[in-house]
Amino acid sequence: AQVGVAIVGAGPAGLVLANLLLDQGIDCVVLERRERAAVESRARAGFLAATAVETLTRNGLGDGLLARGRTHRTCLFRGERGEFTLDYSRAGRREPHTVYPQQELVRDLLTAYLRRGGDLRFGARVTRVTPGLVRLHDGDEVRARYVAGCDGHRGATRAALTARGTRTARWDHGVTWLAVLAAAGPSMAAVGYALHERGFAGHMARTDTVTRYYLQVPRGTDPADWSDDRIWTELALRMRAAEHGPLRPGAVLERTVVDLRCDVLERPGAGRLWLAGDAAGLISPSAAKGANLAVVQAATLAPALAAALAHGDSKGLDRYAEDCLPRVWRAHEFSHWMSGLLHGPAGHGPEARYGRALQYARLESLRTSRAHQDHFAENYTGV
Ligand code: RFL
Which SUPFAM superfamilies does the record cross-reference, listed alphabetically (predicted)? Predict the structure, then answer.
């Protein structure tokens, strides 16, 4: 038997696509290498832009985020010259963010898909993709008219596409973050970005009881070297808690390192294989765009695949790259700028002094220029 679409990966991209294809009456199967509990508990992103929220709610997938998500309107910057709060919901397109943990979104999408009879196989690791055929680790095979690669950055589908000559554009910021998830309520009202000569520190509220923090650390850092105490001491120092008030401590639930790297496939698909989300391109987490791009790309791919399957109309697929890439590159451009704002060079030499002075010039421009605030807001909340 052959399905219409075999979707590899049950992350935000794969599950949005699966739900939308089901709506269109397209038969599909989702193949996910992990077990359900692991998929539903993986904490990563938290910030959903208005476009992603609108895409989800318009397709009947937004009940959870509307009920339990929180609205964020401001972010705060700290540095050696004090702090300031930017109300981005009053600038640019005047859009707030919705803070909703990625694992909750994934749980909602999974539940919606399975409740409507969607086919999904957990513990199904795809090892090889050839046109129309997906091979699993246990030797099983799935035949499909189209394969949708939604298996993230290290998945199997990207390799299948690049092997056919699709080129990649790539950047390494040379920066690494220790990403910490703490069993603690938020320490400040908003997202906080702290510039410090010891390195960047970030605070991202998630829920009343869980907060994400980031610490810039050297490449190659072993997270096990960072005890709870060391994390809280370093965070307090970089976030200048002595000046601005203490952080709310709690047990560290998770510590992982993330290298700030990016890449974009020049063509996110061809023939019978189409990619969305991190599989099509990885964006550094500095501007929290990854999950948003995944949702929006999947929503662009769904009608294109449906038209190709239902009416043999491939115009949407032919246009898929053009429809996605300008948005993707704009997100990368902003993310790149954000990374330059947050990370100064290490050391004390003339170049380090120059780089840090630039960081503060950028921050000062953002603090004082209404035009800059509008531009920031448009990009910060946009996808
Ligand atoms: P995912 O979420 O990685 O899902 C891919 C799924 O595919 C499965 N898979 C396979 N299945 C079968 N066979 C194979 N061979 C397979 N290989 C992989 C995996 O098990 C998984 O279930 O990709 P997707 O759907 O493209 O979604 C992308 C987002 O998850 C990602 O961009 C974001 O999490 C990035 N990100 C953030 N994005 C935001 O928009 N806002 C944020 O605040 C934000 N914070 C973050 C982040 C990513 C982080 N990390 C861990 C890199 C914070 C962190 C710390």
Answer: FAD-linked reductases, C-terminal domain, FAD/NAD(P)-binding domain
Q: In Å, how far are 4, 19, 21, 90, 378 from 308, measured between CA atoms?
A: 10, 17, 12, 42, 34
What is the distance in A from the centroid of ligand 1 to the CA of 284? Answer: 12
Q: What is the pTM of this model?
A: 0.96
Q: Which fold has domain 2-72+95-170+261-337?
A: FAD/NAD(P)-binding domain (3.50.50)
Percent of the chain having pLDDT more than 90? 94
Taking residues 197-217, what's their average pLDDT? 94
pLDDT digits (tens, 9 = 90+) for 319-350: 999 999 999 999 999 999 999 999 988 788 99
Q: What is the DSSP string of 240-284?
A: THHHH------EEEEEEEEEEEEEEESSSEETTEEE-GGGTEE--
Is the Cβ atom of 149 under 6 angstroms away from ligand 1? no
In the chain, where the domains are located? 2-72+95-170+261-337
